[in-house]
């Protein structure tokens, strides 16, 4: 593709006018809070309805606490719960599986169920004119799902196949190993049941769990869209009038996260290694939370961070490196993650530990803090601009006992954090001595380097 | 030149179109719903245009465009977007590459500056090239080599269905090709394809169109015009038989299968193309869809099945030739041909009888709903408008899609089902090779 006029790379990179100055930011327009009703029904169900009428849709989120409180080790709860979330759409006393889907499709709607160690989560949406249909189908599923024997047998088979597929993903293997390393046998570690446990689940066990655990007390239903909030709450009240039965089961507090060597988990033949490091942190209601968020961003919470600039943009070890806060109803943990080429597993761990130590003792500069602050405030604004984003955010907050006001007030908290407060959070939470974690890698290729580095348990 | 269209549910979303003297096409779309703006550049080059021996180059080049430009040191682009409160990304498709950011509206001019600077004078250096080759290799390991079903079907199916290099090769690239890429390749690629006349700039959100037009002019107008490359045809005849290939996947726990068919040229017959999009929905979208009902629940032959109009999962993302795919993951005890036969049986039924009107209405309602949701997200709507302007020459198409989908007739769907002929297709099977 050479043409006579072709320029060199160097010629392309400069113009006669030379480099130009970055334009300043203009003043930012503020947005008024949307109309909202946040109330608790007699059943104990909290309902939050928000008017956001940009498109003629309504988004629905339901979060029901759904923890395993059996206290039994190797409980069948995770398997039964997973199958419940799968087969609840298989039919009700009034609708077949196809009938459910047809009624939802008729109003441009969809409903999905998912379960994790903390809760059962229902996500749905429909054209705004279909709100009643959406609520009516939801009520039918919550109250009258039948989990038919034949459908359940088929879904059980399929679920086993899906778990096998997921279990082959390096990210899932790493997640399982990390949960076990951090929390031992606590129910929080049971994010995906074992195939053999699923195979043993009966339809009666699923029906029994639905009857016993799917309760409105402590649950939250969020509706965001082209609706009148008070009217929407009345519709929820009418549609879910029969959903009663007391308190749902919240997750017990997690065991304290203790610092340990990382554990090497062998995955023979893998061409990439998963590094996962974790340490205790604090949740949204702690006064240090905003400072911790800014320290976390500076380390690896966004692209312009120390981890990404070192591991990816300088060393080329990885496509992504990140640091994040995992929140649970009782607290939080820090999680540093990266996937790197097998041959640089030990060097990448060295750099990750270096950046953790550096954050603790060479804290984020004023520029780093300001960049993280602008990003946190701006990305919060952007994430709340869609009905779906707004609904998910409010549902997550409400599941942890907070309201939409918390997120509206959060930018002011973020603006008020000082550079010293960020430094204090960095020193308190990011020192490498607080961390535990796992390395999933081909041990034959990586064990020697990790041994040389130390702080890694090599089986 | 200015024209206007109306998006569903948004009376105030006029679309303003301009062309700068250097040939850059500009779309300005006010959307005051939230105080945010989006800026996107779509360039008319994708992985189908990359030179032989340089597989993966279009994507590698996309990475290089983030590595700095005349006014911006390495890392400055990321830092300026994020420290303005914004998010950014880029992606490489068959026929185009996009670069974009969404930010609080206070940063509109800054975003235009950042995009203009790299379209004018990207900083292409040896050090950045080598670094990004390493990063791209890790991206490929993450998404393809170290996971089950990596590149299935978008990398693995085209070489079975197509003969020519542009259509058949791996757009992520072979490691040997990536390692051989040099700075001269990058300079030649930029000069050939990143001319302002070969790109579309889309600006959407909380903006005044006149003011935005002035800012666009200020930052982009002095990029010199360059020759716009002639767009080659990638046409090749449809397969004259059944082409089969088997690939062993060391990470896959279950076998899988993909059928590949040629789609009608959307440029020549948009209605026929869209009938295939509706057909894909009728086959596998939702629990009541025909193949889902029959193969997942009825015959229990597959774990999951999915039909897609377009190789990358979305309709109208590429020019002709493009691919209709049916992919399924199934237990080892099921012979792949039983699945193929069942698909053919359902297609024959649909070709003979067509869908019923109520079934079609439900598919249409779901399309409308998914389009509303897409439009609610400024980033999605911006990318859809920019891609439609570049690929189909009409941004309006992105907003008109639900109406056009609603107008698809049962007869057109029947014809689409009949066009997926059993004697002109690719069949790719994936065999698990674990424990090897």
Quick summary of this structure?
The complex is a heterodimer of chains A (459) and B (436). Chain A has 459 residues and is an alpha+beta fold.
Structural commentary:
Chain A: InterPro entries: Metalloenz_LuxS/M16, MPP/UQCRC_Complex, Pept_M16_N, Peptidase_M16_C. Chain A: Residues 72-191 form the Peptidase M16 N-terminal domain. The complex is a heterodimer of chains A (459) and B (436). Chain A has 459 residues and is of the alpha+beta class. Chain A has two domains: 36-239, Cytochrome Bc1 Complex, Chain A, domain 1 (2-Layer Sandwich), CATH 3.30.830.10; 262-457, Metalloenzyme, LuxS/M16 peptidase-like (Cytochrome Bc1 Complex, Chain A, domain 1, 2-Layer Sandwich). Chain A is built from 17 helices and twelve strands. Chain A has a six-stranded mixed beta sheet with strand order 1-2-6-3-5-4, with helices on both faces. Chain A has a six-stranded mixed beta sheet with strand order 9-10-8-11-7-12, with helices on both faces. In chain A, β1 and β2 (46-51) form a beta hairpin. With 436 residues, chain B is of the alpha+beta class. Helices cover 42% and strands 17% of the residues of chain B. Chain B has a six-stranded mixed beta sheet, with helices on both faces. In chain B, strands 7-11-8-10-9 form a five-stranded mixed beta sheet. The termini of chain B are far apart. The chains are: A alpha+beta (459), B alpha+beta (436). The interface between A and B is large, with 94 and 99 residues.
Label this structure with key terms.
heterodimer; A: 459 residues; Cytochrome Bc1 Complex, Chain A, domain 1; 2 domains; B: 436 residues; alpha+beta; five-stranded mixed β-sheet; 11 strands; Peptidase_M16_C (chain A); Pept_M16_N (chain A); Putative Zn-dependent peptidase (chain A); Metalloenz_LuxS/M16 (chain A)
